[in-house]
Amino acid sequence: MTRDYIYVRFLFVLVVALLLTSCGSRRTAINMQPTTTEQVTQSVEEIKRDTVLVIPADKSQYVADLAIQVNMIVVKDANIKRSKNKVLQPPKVQLVNNKLMVDCEVEAQQMFLEWKEKFIKEQRVIETKIPIAVPLELSTWQQTQIWLGRTLLLLMTLGSVGYGLRSRVL
Hints:
Layout: H1 3-22, E1 35-55, E2 58-59, E3 61-69, E4 72-81, E5 92-96, E6 99-103, E7 105-106, E8 109-129, H2 140-169
Antiparallel strand pairs: 1-8, 2-7, 3-4, 5-6
């Protein structure tokens, strides 16, 4: 192996090493695709409710004429008025041993009701991030490295061309 061959080989390895190391980056690449995230939040709301139900008073009426027949009291021409709310049945009238019994009224009633209602609220938040490329200016050191690299590449090209011409001429 000649000295010139070793010199060319060393120069080639140096150029390849410089090219491989100058193309690397310490930072990871930024993904420029839009990203979407969805967040679902559920909340349960419990509401306690109450109310009072009022059932109004109601009545039905029984009107009749009483007459005496053979030493007995008898009911004749009975007129029955039913209740308006249809809660009461027509009154039951009994005439036993000259005693009249009628049952027909209902008093007003109140009922207190209490219950719980559950509401499930589901809230979806969809967030879309759209990256925007922002051009940054190079620092002075970065610009110096670029110019030094170009100068070195130019010198290496001129040296290779000069070496090639010298070896052919001689």
